[in-house]
Structure formats: C-alpha cells, structure tokens
Amino acid sequence: xxxxxxxxxxxxxxxxxxxxxxxxxxxxxxxxxxxxxxxxxxxxxxxxxxxxxxxxxxxxxxxxxxxxxxxxxxxxxxxxxxxxxxxxxxxxxxxxxxxxxxxxxxxxxxxxxxxxxxxxxxxxxxxxxxxxxxxxxxxxxxxxxxxxxxxxxxxxxxxxxxxxxxxxxxxxxxxxxxxxxxxxxxxxxxxxxxxxxxxxxxxxxxxxxxxxxxxxxxxxxxxxxxxxxxxxxxxxxxxxxxxxxxxxxxxxxxxxxxxxxxxxxxxxxxxxxxxxxxxxxxxxxxxxxxxxxxxxxxxxxxxxxxxxxxxxxxxxxxxxxxxxxxxxxxxxxxxxxxxxxxxxxxxxxxxxxxxxxxxxxxxxxxxxxxxxxxxxxxxxxxxxxxxxxxxxxxxxxxxxxxxxxxxxxxxxxxxxxxxxxxxxxxxxxxxxxxxxxxxxxxxxxxxxxxxxxxxxx
Length: 457
Known about the structure:
Elements (H helix, E strand, L loop, with lengths): L2 E2 L13 H8 E5 L18 H8 L7 H10 L3 E3 L4 E3 L13 H14 L7 H17 L1 H12 L3 H27 L2 E3 L10 E7 L2 E5 L7 H13 L2 E5 L5 H14 L5 E3 L4 H8 L5 E6 L1 H12 L5 E5 L4 E4 L5 H12 L13 E5 L3 H16 L15 H12 L1 H4 L2 E3 L3 E2 L4 E2 L2 E4 L6 H4 L6 E7 L2 H6 L1
C-alpha cells in the first residue's frame, strides 16, 4: 500500500524559480511498511503530434560556428516552401534518432535511475556543484551562444540567465538538507499504534522541454529542480536557439552525470518521439498551443505535467500613477527583457484617458533616452530570434488598422532581424495584435475611461 499527501518540498519557499520546480518534481508520501509501484511502460502512439508541432514551430538547425558568422553578417536563407529559417546543416549533429533511438535512451536513463544513486544527498550536491563550475568556466561560451541565437547583449544575458541559474544552484545547495529531511506528522487512528512522517521522494525520470527566448535559463533552471528532487532527466532544448542547444549538448556530459542527465537535440520529430515515451514528470515552457499537445501526449500515460505558458500581460496606469518611475520600469521590462520576447514582458498598456497623451509623450522620451535617436545602433537591444518570428511581427504591424495607429517607431530591417521599439495608440481590440501574445518589441497603448468600467466590461 502507499499513501500520498498534498504538500511538497520547497512549497512556499521564497527564492529563485527552482523552489517551484523542486516542488513539482518530488513526490511526498507517508512511510509505510510496504509499497506498491506501477512499472507499466507500454508505448502509446501520439497520432497527430508531429503534424501539430510542425504547425507551431519554426525549425532551424545550424552549425554553431556558421551561425555566428551568419549572425554577424545578418545573412539568412529562407526556405519559403515550409516557412522556416535554414542554413548549413551540422555535420557533427548528434541528435538521437527518432523512435528507436529515443526508446533506447529512455531504457538507459531509467535503468540508471533504478540504481538509486540519485536518492543520496551526495549525488545531488555533486551535480549542483557541477553546474556552478560550468557557469564559472564556460561563461564566455554561454554569452556567445546567447548572442548568436538572439543577439542578446552580454550584460542582459548575464543578469537574466547566468546569474539566475547561479542563484538557483546556491539556494538548492543551501536548502537541500532541509528539503530532504522527513517531517513528522500525527498518525491516524486506523494505523494506531504507529509513527508517521512525510518523506519527499523523487518522482522518477523527467522530461524538460525548454523554450528559445531564454534558452539557457529555461533549460538549466528546471534541471536544478529535477536534480534537487533526486530525479533523472532528459533535456530537450529548443531547436529555435541552435547555438545554445548545441552548447548544452556539449557541456552537460562534461559537468554532470551523463548516465542520469541526457540532452536530446532536434526538432519536431525528436520531440514527438520523446512525448511518446512514458515519463514520471514533464516540464514544458512555451506557447499555449504546443502546451495542449504536450498535455494531450502526457494524458496517454497519466503523466503529471507542469506548463509554463505565455499570454497577454497588461499594465495599468491610473491618474495617480508616477509616470516617470512607472514608464522607466515598463521600458526596461519590455525592450530590456529580450526585446519583448518574454512571457513576463508588458504586452500592452491600459491607461486612464485623462493622462493618455501625457503617457505616450513620456514613453517616447524614455525610449530615446534608453536606446538613442536610432535604436538600431544601440548595443542594448536584442534581435528577433529568426525570420519566421520577424515575419509574424511585421504582419501584425502591416495590418492597416494597426499601421495607421503607430505613434512611435515602426522602423525595421529584415537583414538584421530588427524591429524598432514601436508604440501603437488606441488600436482596435479585434485586431490580431490584441488577440494574440505579441512576443516582440511592439507595445499597444489603450485608453480607458475608468478601472471600474474596464473590469466590468
């Protein structure tokens, strides 16, 4: 018999994201004399996953050195027949062959996990220290990869990715002993006389599918949670950030236990093959559309899933707001945060109509102060990730109902994947710009009569 409680290690802790991820990757249970386990592992085909994923992702597989050369030249070859960005294929690509290869990898990782090594504090601390060493010894390579994928400025990449991973690691090392310590609880009358405790146990073998917009942070931070919980894991980095994906595939075996922690590179075919396997936990970061596919695949095996998804993210200014302070924070959160390519970036502004014109003028001044009269020359702006996303964003701007409402910016350079910080004022709500997550440097500003009317409508 076995009993499961609802509390989780790390729940309620304040600190980096790993506290949440540890909570979702460890399964607490009451210690009882005998335990039962379900080891059934039959494979279930996910019939339409490949086709659905292909409609959601723009694929790119580039050699790392070639990618850097192309980025510096801003020269991209568009394969318009399938709407994806393409360049020279990697000769040394080490993708796991879809289907059979992923199944073999899964058997190997699960066999390693069953050895029990991940249950010891020593193994977990060793892996966490390995990540800390990797950050220290390979910081330059990480910064290069992030610039190659996103044109991400070095200071932004360090603050938004490397420093957060280091902070998560240090938190996990500091708190690990407490997270692993059993918590005594009162026994029930049905088990009297007895003693009881809540013991945090690893769920097993986990799959992490990371996103392209913060490709290092969103790959390694969930890894820290899995390691701290004592799980083995397979990481699938985003193929849309190929330089970072290739770097992770190179570094992870050098610094971590490669029998327990594996990296699978590739695109839709590899992701489909991974989702067909039976996992004990899946952690996915990305769009809601692909999130539905991931959850549907996980449901075949009743696998628990954590989805970290995007959406519309408004900011509201009422007439009492300090515009100078508030708008500086908005500008930093929008264009200083991967140039709007982040789920926590402000998607649009709602403002009391009495101060709307003042807000627009103030925000124009702040953009010029942050990025100069010609933001294209600024070294503090990342670029759009690839030609597919560039096309999506320019299509939003080219809608006549939107283009006529541009009050600042709008300049673009396809060869550099550059779109200037752009303000659009009072755009119609039924336009695609206001119906889907923007995920780019475009910021609509909508005036409202009052907060009460806004909520009620």
